[in-house]
Specification:
The termini are far apart. This protein has a single domain, classed as Metal Binding Protein, Guanine Nucleotide Exchange Factor, Chain A, CATH 2.170.150.70. The strands form 2 sheets. Strands 6-7-8-9-4-3-10 form a 7-stranded mixed sheet. It has a 3-stranded antiparallel sheet with strand order 1-2-5, with no helix packed on it. The mean pLDDT is 92. By secondary structure, it is mainly beta. The chain binds zinc ion (2 copies).
């Protein structure tokens, strides 16, 4: 029956659970300072979906609006970072580390490498962009 993909994930305590269906609109490692702060990791990896393709199975995560067009979600109980949300174009980018099967998606590129931590060495051969790739929007960042 076609190539329907289902991606499920959630937070550390299990209070926040989501199911994304369909084909991801993109994947990226983001090195921006805001993703670093929000995730607590030295960079954050996300997989994007149209916001309407994500179903929150228990309740919706708490949101922190980090700029005019962006919000970041987290579990109000355990504090796990969940996703980056573009409010204007309505895309949601769960952090790949929140997926039940993070190995099921493969990041395609690096963004905001101008903010990458200098000691971090990544030799994966993927394209690297100082900010966003040309002609692309909806990536984690902002
Ligand atoms: Zn939780
Ligand atoms: Zn970012």
């Amino acid at each position: 029956m076609g190539a329907e993909h289902i991606y499920e994930g959630g937070c550390l305590c299990g209070k926040i659970r989501y199911r994304a269906s369909g084909v991801p609109i993109g994947t990226a490692h983001c090195h921006c300072n805001k993703c670093r702060r929000h995730s607590g990791a030295v960079f954050a990896s996300g997989v994007g979906f149209p916001a309407d393709d994500i179903e929150w199975l228990n309740e919706e995560p708490a949101l922190y609006q980090s700029s005019e067009n962006c919000a970041r979600s987290f579990c109000p109980a355990c504090g796990s970072s969940i996703a980056h949300h573009w409010l204007d174009i309505r895309t949601t980018w769960p952090f790949i580390g929140t997926l039940d099967h993070p190995e099921s998606v493969t990041p395609e590129l690096h963004i905001f490498v101008e903010e990458q931590i200098p000691w971090l060495r990544i030799n994966d051969g993927l394209p690297r962009y100082s900010k966003f790739p040309p002609a692309r929007r909806g990536d984690p960042g902002c």
